Amino acid sequence: MEQAMRTILVANPKGGCGKTTLATNLAAYLAGQNQRVVMWDLDRQKSSLDWLALRPSELPTITSLDADRNEIHPDIPENNDWLVLDSPAGMHGKNLAHALKLAHKVMVPVQPSVFDMAATRDFLDQLMEEKSVRKHKAFIGIIGMRVDPRTRAAATLEQFLQQYDLPVLTYLRDTMVYVNAAFNGKSIFDLPPYQTERDISQWQPIIEWVNS
Question: What is the CATH number of the domain that holds 188?
Answer without folding.
Answer: 3.40.50.300
